[in-house]
Amino acid sequence: MKNKGFTLAEVLGVVVILGLLVIVSFPPLLNQLKKSKNTLSEAELKILGEAAGLYIDDHLSNYPTVEDNVYCISLDTLVKNGYLKSPIIDATTNEEINEVNNEIRVVINGQNDYSYDLRDKTTSDKCVEIRA
To answer: Which of 84, 96, 124, 127 could form a disulfide linkage to 78, CB 3.0–4.6 angstroms apart?
Structure first.
């Protein structure tokens, strides 16, 4: 009578091969997850910047779009005026961004060409906060 089934050596061989596959594939998977979070964070910054750009476009009398002008618009102002929804979550840390202590620094590079930077209000760079 012949026994059907796998020997202990065959089972151990399969387990070792599966373990090696996991070890080889796990680091690239983690790198891809980290990269996607950074991409999402860049997209989030772009959304914040676009909201600030729309705010400036709607309030041109307060924000002249002269090249090299620098403006700071608090996230709180953007939320209160309906350009952003609260709460604003940082994609990399999954924590809420404090709307009162953070602002978007907008640099006018040309007509309808802005660059954006999210920063803490306590920094001392040249920046003008104008509230409409």
So the answer is: 84
Mean pLDDT by 10 residues, the chain (132 residues): 81 95 88 72 83 86 79 87 84 77 83 80 62 44
SS3 for the chain is: CCCCCCCHHHHHHHHHHHHHHHHHHHHHHHHHHHHHHHHHHHHHHHHHHHHHHHHHHHCCCCCCCCCCCEEEEEHHHHHHCCCCCCCCEECCCCEECCCCCEEEEEEEEECCEEEEEEEECCCCCCCEECCC
The pTM (predicted TM-score) of the whole model is 0.62
- What count of Cα atoms within 13 Å lies in the side-chain half-sphere of residue 11? 4
Cα gap 33→2, rounded to integer Å: 49
